[in-house]
Specification:
Porin, 1 helix, mainly beta
């Protein structure tokens, strides 16, 4: 009986070890970022800025506890933000408007739980913890013929707005992933910004949401 119990225990441990799997690797891709502004003390009210198309790059680590469930953690960098174009009025011979671009240099720490529908296809839900390392804004007034940079920054024309921007951007996300047998994978996710990034004391709210589509490679596994 003791021998049978010992053999059973060894077999169970072997199956558990086989089910556990650790993988890691690089990932990069395309991001579409938007900013939503709620100006409580402004006649503009709520408005959504136009998307900014940018990139992300970094690495990931995945721990699969059994055939269906796992966890994943990542470290990514992405220059998120948005842009906005405001039409102006006819000033003599040209149509004058205003264009503003906001860029948040963000270090992202996504953490998620994953459910594997098949060995290669999974869905995930979690949260992005973004640390905003830099915040820049560039505003240009003009038309297609003449434009004037109205920012007072350096030669690049950008002004630093880091003091007016909070450092933490928390964004819950959902996503999907498909991995080939050789470790190459493709994923897509959407992160909804819930943190108020405005630090100017006006009572308004600024949130940053973003979608990501990318590719990566996983090393390790059984």
């Amino acid at each position: 009986m003791k021998k049978l119990f010992l053999l059973t225990a060894v077999a169970v441990m072997g199956l558990s070890a086989k089910a556990q799997e650790f993988r890691f690797g690089p990932k990069a891709g395309f991001a579409m970022s938007t900013i939503k502004v709620d100006e409580k003390q402004d006649d503009l009210g709520k408005r959504n800025m136009d998307p900014k198309y940018t990139f992300y790059i970094g690495g990931m680590a995945e721990y699969k506890i059994n055939d269906n469930f796992g966890f994943q953690a990542e470290v990514l960098y992405s220059p998120l933000g948005a842009k906005e174009k405001i039409d102006g009025v006819n000033a003599g011979v040209m149509f004058v408007g205003e264009q503003t671009k906001v860029t948040y240099g963000t270090l992202l720490f996504p953490v998620s739980a994953k459910y594997f529908i098949t060995e290669g296809f999974s869905v995930a839900a979690g949260a992005n913890f973004g640390v905003i390392l830099s915040a820049k804004q560039k505003t240009v007034i003009g038309s297609d013929l003449i434009s004037v940079d109205v920012t007072d920054g350096e030669s690049s024309g950008e002004v630093d707005i880091k003091k007016q921007t909070k450092s933490l951007n928390i964004a819950p996300f959902v996503g999907v992933e498909y991995m080939l047998e050789n470790g190459l994978f493709f994923d897509a996710r959407y992160s909804l910004g819930v943190s108020n990034l405005s630090n100017d004391g006006s009572g308004g709210k600024v949130t940053n949401s973003f979608a990501q589509v990318g590719v990566g490679f996983k090393f390790g596994g059984n």
